[in-house]
Structure formats: C-alpha cells, structure tokens
Amino acid sequence: MEKSARPRTALNECVKVVVRCRPLAEKEKNEGFDEVVKVWPERGGVQVYNPKGQDKLFTYDAAYDCTADTQTIYDEMVRPLVASVLDGFNGCVFAYGQTGTGKTHTMEGTPEHEGVIPRAFRHIWAHIENSASPDVTHLVSCSYIELYLEDVRDLLSKDCKKLTIRGQYTSKLQNPPPSLRHSTTRRTALSPQRPQSTELNGFYIPEMTSVVCKSAAEMVRIMKAGNRNRASGRTDMNEHSSRSHAVFLVTVETAHRKTNRIRVGKLNLVDLAGSERQRKTGASAERLREASRINQALSSLGNVISALAENSPHVPYRDSKLTRILQDSLGGNSKTIMIANIGPASYNYDETITTLRYAHRAKAIKNKPVRNEDPKDAKLREYQAEIERLRALIEQRRGLADKKVKKEKVAKSKPQPADNSEEETVSIENENILAESTIEQEKCKTEELEHQINALEERLVQGGGGKDLINNLNETRLILEQRHTEITERKKREVEMQQRIELEEETTAIVTNTFANLQQEVDHKTQRLKKCLAKYAGLREEMVEQREAHDNERRDHETLQAALIAELRRRLLVADSFVPDAGRPAVLRARYNEDTDAWELREHSGVEPLARRPVSAAGRRRPTCSAALAHNLPRQRAENVLDLAPLPLPTTTRTYTPPRHHPLHSQSIPTPVKKEPEMEPVTVPRKSAGRPARPSTAHHRLGTAGVR
Ligand SMILES: Nc1ncnc2c1ncn2[C@@H]1O[C@H](COP(=O)(O)OP(=O)(O)OP(=O)(O)O)[C@@H](O)[C@H]1O
C-alpha cells in the first residue's frame, strides 16, 4: 500500500472538564451531614457553601448534579470524543476525585446504570455496523492494565504479569516487526501514536496483551474479566474501593480501500483510584500502603496539571508511572475529558474544594490532537500484508501442484515398453506413489494456508458487511445519534452564551454608566476600588484556605508516614526475630533495580563491603572514634575508625547479696560485696564503656534514624 507523507498540523484544544456531584450517601444522611454543594447545570457552575467565609463558585465546560445520569454525560460530553477516535484521533476520558465520589460508578457503572466505558463500546460498534461500505475494513482491539503500588499489571494476562513502561521510541520500535505468530499478545503502544516529529518523549508498554474484538458484548466480557483481576477492597469511606488506577485502552483501525489509507484512533478510558485521608478511611497495614501509593501518584498528577496550567518549562511527567501513562492525554496528542467527581457532604468540604481547584486548573491545559493517518504500527496493515503474502503462497503452490499433476499424466500416458523388467515397473510405480503423496501434501498445505487466511479475515470487520447489517434499527440509531449531537451542540452553546452574557452584563454595567460629573467618576472609582478590595480579600481568604488545606494535607502525610513507619518497624521486628543469621548477608546484598523493576542479588565478592562511613558531626571534619575521645589523642581524632567490637551481652544475673542476719555477716568476712544496680531481666544496655552502643538490629537502626 502506498504511504503518504502529508504534513499533519495540530490545532490546540483545551482539556474539557466536567464536574459530577453524586447524591448524599445513606451513611452521610444518617450521620447528619449537610449538603454544601449547589450545581448550576445551565451555566456549568458549581457553588460550594463555605461555613467559615465566602462561598466559592467555579465554572466548567459542564456540571452535573445528582439527578443527571451517565447517559446524559455520555451524550453531551463523551460522544463527540469517541466520534473523533473513530475518525482517527486519540482520546482520553479520566475520572478524578476523592474516594467514594463515584469514579467507578461513572466509568464502569453498574448493571442498572451503565457507565461511560460500556457505552463507548456500543457507540464504536454501532458506528462500525453503520459504515455501510464494503470498502471499509475495521479492526478493533483492546487492552486493560492497572497501576497497583507503582507496578503496572496486565489485567488480561493469566497471572496479571507485571509490565514495564519504556521511555522514548527508537526508530526500531517505531516499526515493530510484523509478527503475526503471536497475534493476541504483541507490542502495543499505550501512549497513542504521535506525529513523527514529536515522538521523542513517548512512552510505551511492550508485551501488553491486546485482544482483537468482534462485538461490544465481547469487549464488555473482556472488561469484566479484567475487573475480576483488579485490586479493590473495603475502607470506611467505600465498601468497594478501587485500590489501583485502571486504564482500558481501545484501538480502532479503519482502512479505506479507495483511498488506501488507514486511520488509527486510540481511546484511553481511565478510572483513577481516589485520594484519601487515613483518619477518614481508617486504613491500616496493606490498605495503608496502597493509600500512600495512591496519594503519591495523585499528587504527581496534580503537579503535572499545575505545571501545564502555568505553562511551566518543566512538566514532571517522570515523577510517577501514572503521569507517564497519561503523558499524551495531558498536554500531548489527544483530545481529553476530565470528569471530576465530588460529594456534596459538608464533611468533605476540603477535599471537594481541592478537587474543584485541580479541575479548574486542568481547564487551562492545551493539547495538540492530530489525526493518526497511516501510522507505521497499524495492525490492520500487518494483517493485510500477511493475507496477501499467504494468497501469493497459495497461488505459487497451486501452480507447482498443477505442473506436477501434468507431468504425472504425461508419464502415465506414455506407452510402456513391452520388455520392461520387473524392477523398472516397480520403480515407476514407486515414483507415481511418491508424486501422488507430494500432491496430497501440497493440497493439505494449501488448505492450511486458506484456513490461516480465513482466521485473519475473520478478525477484520468489513464495514456494513452487506446490506443485511444496515437494518432499520441501525438507521434509526444513526438518526438518533445525529439528533443527540445537535442537541448537545446547542446545549454547549447555551452554556457558553450564559457565561458570556454574565460577563458582558458586568462590563456593560460599568461602560453604560457614563460620568455626568466628577462626583460620579469618584463614585465609580470608589465602587471599583471596593470591588478590587473585595477581590483582594477573597484572594487572601483563598490563600489562607489553601495554606490551611496544605497544612491539613501535610498533617495527613505525616500521620500516614508515622503509621507506615510503625508498620515498617513491626515488619523489621518480625524480620529481625525470624530471619536467620545465615540469610542476612543475602538480604543485605539485595538491591532494587529501577530499570528492570525487580530486586536483584549482587554478586558475592567473598568479602562483604565495609559499612558506609558515617557523616561527620556538625563542626567536625570527620567522625571521631570513641578511643580518641576517651584518651584525648588528637592524632586519632581524624581517623576513620569503625567500631566493630561486639556488643556486650545483657546481664541476666545479679551478684548474690546475703541477708543482713546471715551467718556470713556475723562472721564478718572482709570480702566487700559490690552493690549492683537493679537490672531488668532482658534489656540491652544503651551505653557501654562510656561510648554510645551501636544499634544491634535493623529495627534499632530505623529507630535512631528517626522520622525525617
Ligand atoms: N451518581 C451517583 N448516583 C448514585 N450513586 C452513586 C453515584 N456516584 C456514586 N454512587 C455510589 O457511591 C458509592 C461509591 O462509588 P464508587 O465506588 O464509584 O466511588 P469511587 O470514586 O470509584 O471510589 P474509590 O476511589 O474508592 O474507588 C457506590 O456505592 C456508588 O453506587
């Protein structure tokens, strides 16, 4: 197929931000919490009542209250994005927000309330069935991964194998070899296809399972199978809390026979885990470890959003795997929708304001979506090339087989000489048998190749598949879709108009107020000054609130850290008590390799390396050994002496002191009895021979390191 090098220009497009507020939960009602969120869907506004000060009002591309269903959100916001994906663009929908605010409810939904993901599947397949030309071929494949405790796991592989995110495409990786032998599991770029000139920073996940699908129902089955492997658990804030960030990737490839072009659209459907506070979720042990990683990744995502919104020259995508995965969706080649989920309860005021602030910042992020035409890693092209190769092979084999048959016929038709010896007759017969078996083998091979072609062709979906697929239902669906799009467009315009009218009203109120005399001007200026002062006061208040929120967040982090350290100490204590001494050198040699994402044992050199030299005390050039301190030897002060003396064993006995009226006393034996201090039976002395005792276990070492 001919490849075009047509330049593709990218138009900036802002990230669309939608806010969805869920209803007050039963538990929140029972505990008597008030609703502090008011949504203004007609102007995309969200107002939060502040019990301590001024109310907050934020505006977005759209805002939905608790009465809105996912169908409305899909039709108004997500449908146009999925339509772009079908047209060869990259798209991303991600749900963001505090734990228990309805991210999974929005993305996956429930059997009664279908979420965005299954709706997108149906939309894609309705489009494929409606594209009535047999000249159009589609190939739909999907992958499902999760980010759990900073491990990327393949939810569609048998044992949820760990995957590695690789940075930067190389020229070799841009053209992966067309290997169809492993047609279900092959290298797939998660980071959507970038135009060649900007492909330098892309990330991709090799060996991610990619399953070719034939219907929306099959895709739902795959999603459910993946969900069964996804990490989830109970917390005090959510009965079924997602403990991982999940990404469902759909790739739709469309080949147009007439134009010889292939368009590849990639859709990332992301259900993030929610931010959470330990004191509210009551997380401990494993849940706590998960929470710390979830918050860490979300904090990195917040930093990326802030950096992009402020047009910062450095965007910290590399800070976490989540931001690497979402790199293209935020500030890259993609059309993106962020669904910010919030709860209405007063109890969650701080978290709601934080989510709304991030969502507001995300509105300023500009993406550069480009239509992916004829990308080099299009699977469809590989399939077509393979089918053509197999067809050519069959033709070749058929030609050879025909020739052999003709040859045999000629040989058979030749008159046999009458004086043929018995041996000659046998050899001719053998030759005939051999030729017949070769022809049979050729036939089998040809049939095998035909089977292969059929299998490959079955994966490709011919647009429309003939008139029988374009039934009335699909036509009606198409018309309905068009109507939906029109209504959505109109609604969007209405919201925009409403927001513009409000702005205009404010400015015209000032402009139309003509100054009749100086007093009027003074009044006007005073009014403006008042407004400025009010704005200044508002900003100050916001700053104070932000500081408060930041302090709260810091306190939370500290609590979390303290809890994690306590947990770590517990584990170290267990390790110190139960890991045998023989195993410790091996434990010390274990190193974490960030490239391979695994723990490795270093080569045993025979001699264990010396412990690292301790850092100097303040004001001293080098650490001073205890001997130098004891004898005041200035020469030894600068020596790097490691104290390798064994620790004194704890005293478990007491020197015998006879009772006062014991016969020994009455005999007045001159031996002086030294009085020993009272000893706890099994405590390790902290000091020995005037120098500080070294901690004996990892547990103690951690204790002396303290909480940083
Ligand atoms: N719009 C809504 N209407 C009705 N119920 C909702 C809505 N949104 C969420 N819920 C309910 O709230 C609960 C929590 O929702 P969900 O599990 O989707 O939250 P989440 O944000 O995904 O939480 P986490 O981050 O912990 O996974 C569920 O019982 C869900 O049914």
UniProtKB/TrEMBL annotation:
Coiled-coil boundaries: 439-490, 515-556
A Pfam short name: Kinesin
Keyword annotations: ATP-binding, Coiled coil, Cytoplasm, Cytoskeleton, Microtubule, Motor protein, Nucleotide-binding
One annotated GO biological process: microtubule-based movement
Subcellular location: Cytoplasm, Cytoskeleton
Residues annotated for ATP binding in this entry: G97, Q98, T99, G100, T101, G102, K103, T104
Molecular function terms, GO-annotated: ATP binding; microtubule binding; microtubule motor activity
Bias type Polar residues, positions: 186-198
InterPro entries membership: Kinesin-like_fam, Kinesin_motor_CS, Kinesin_motor_dom, Kinesin_motor_dom_sf, P-loop_NTPase
Family: Belongs to the TRAFAC class myosin-kinesin ATPase superfamily. Kinesin family.
Protein name: Kinesin-like protein
